[in-house]
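Appendix B.2, paired examples.
Example (i):
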Amino acid sequence: MSVALELWEQPQEDEIYMIVGWRQWADAGSVSSGLPQYLIEQTKAKQIGAIQNDGFYLFQIPGTHDLVRPVVNFTEGYPDRLETQRNELYYTSHQGRGVVLFIGDEPHLDVERYVATILQAVQKLKVKRIIGLGGVYGELPYNKERIVSSIYSMNNLKAELTDLAVNLSDYQGGASIGSYLCRRAGDQGVEYIYFYAFVPTYDLSSTNQVGNTIRIENDYMAWLGIMKRVNHMLKLDLDLSDLEQKSVHLIELMDSKVEELDRSEPQLGMRAYLDRLAVEFNEIEFNPLDDVWEEELRRLFNKLDPDE
C-alpha cells in the first residue's frame, strides 16, 4: 500500500463514482483540469484526501531554467507562497449517489506507483467506476457539438459506450496519464472510462498574424458534451444549465472574434474557411430521449398549481 495516500473521511453512500482529471499533456480546452475544478466549485464538494508529492515530480531539468520548478512568491523577503504540485480528492453526493472528484498534476516520475495510489484510493473509497477526462486540439467548427472519443478498461463496458455517441479510439502513440490509468485499472478489474473531447484550434501560421494560432482555452461546449454523457451514464442528474449558458456565450465570443478578424485581416478569409469546415463536419449530437422526457415532465410538474 502506498504511503502517499491520505484520506481523512470515508463516504457512506452505497453507490460511489470517481471523476478524475489532471493538469496534464492532454488538456486541450482545460477539459482535464478545468472541468473537475468547475464541478468541485459547482457542487460545493469538500476535500476528503490527497496524494502527497512523494517523489513523483522533478525539481528541475538542466538547461530549461524554470520549466518544472515550483513557483515561490516573496514579499519584502518573506516567502508568503510556495506553489507545488497538488493531487487532491473531493467529495459530493447527489440523490443518493456519491462522486469523488480528483484533480491532480500529471507525474514526472514513478508513474506506476502514482497510478497504484489512485487505484488504492478507489479501493478504499469503494468506488464503483472511474471516469477520466481529457482534451485534444483539432480543426473543427467552434459552433458545433464536439467530437467525443473514448477508451475503456474492461470489455463489458464497450456495449454501454455504443449508446453514448462516442468514437472508440484506435490511437497508437505516447500515453497520457489517463490512458495509462486505463490499462492499469483493467489489470485490477476496475471499471474505467476515459472521455476526451476534440477542441477547436485554427492554425494561421501561413499568415503574418502575430498570434498565429486561435484556440479555445476553456471549452465549455466540450465540458457540456462530456457531462451530458456522464450524467446519463451514471444517472447523476447534475444541473448543467450553467454550462449550457456558458456554451452559448462562448459561441457569441467566437463569432465576435471571427467578425473582428474578417474586418482587420480580410485576406485570411476566416469566415469562409470556417463555413467550409462546417460543411465537411459530421456533427453527432447526444440528446438521449429519456433525459429529454424527464426534463419535459419536470417542467410540466413545475407549472402545475399545487391546489389543483
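Example (ii):
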Amino acid sequence: MAPRPHRPVRSPAFRAAPLLAAWLALLACGAPPVRTGPLPGPALVTSAEPYRLQPGDELELRFFHTPELDLTLPVRPDGSISIPLVHEVRVAGRTVEEVRLELTERYAGELAEPELVVIVRAFARYPVHVGGEVARPGVLELSGPRTVLEAVLAAGGWLTTARLAEVVVVRRHESGGHELVTADLGAVLAGRDGRGNFALRPWDVVFVPSSPIADVNRWVDQYIRQNIPITFSYRLDTSD
C-alpha cells in the first residue's frame, strides 16, 4: 500500500488568521478618523489668567544698567520679599509684571534709569487632593502650572469605572467660599474640546466620579463638609 501524502497540520491561530484580518479590516472601515491639530478652547497647559506669585516661589531680579544689584531670593511665607534700597515688597497674589512695575517705580528714587526684569526661577510646591476613581487617591504636591488631567495622571490614572466626562474640581476662594466646576476630560481625550483641562490652583480638590454627577454631593458631605463647614456654589464649565 502506497503511503498517504503528508498534509501539513495548521495551528488554530493559523486557521483563524484570515478571520482576524477580516475583523480588523471591518473595524478600520468603521472607525472614526483620528483627530489631529489643536483642540478647541484655551491651551491645555496654561490658564487664561497670568500666573500669580505665591509663597515659596523663587524670584530672580535682573537690572539692565546696574547688574551688581542682581539677586535671587524666595518669596517668604508672609508673601513678601526684602531687597536692598526699597526694602519690603508684597508680591504674593500678584503677577510678575505687576511686581516689575512697582519695583521700577520704587527704584526711580534711587537709580537714574531703573530698568529691570523679574523672573520666576522656581515654582512653589502646593497641595492638590485627587480622589474618586483613580489608582492612588490622596494629596499631591505639585509645582508650577498643572492641569486637571495632569493631576489625575499623577494620581496613577483613572480606573475603568471612572466617568471622565463628569470630573469635578472643588475650588475655594480667598473670600472663604467654595464652588464646584465640572471638567469633561472625556472630551479632552477624544480631541473634541480642551476646555475641561484647565489649570489647577493650590488646595483644589479633583474628584473623579463613578456615578452620575448628582452623587458628588454625597462625596462632598462625606469627605469635606463633615470636617470643614463650608458652603458651595456650582457652575458648569461651558464658557466659549
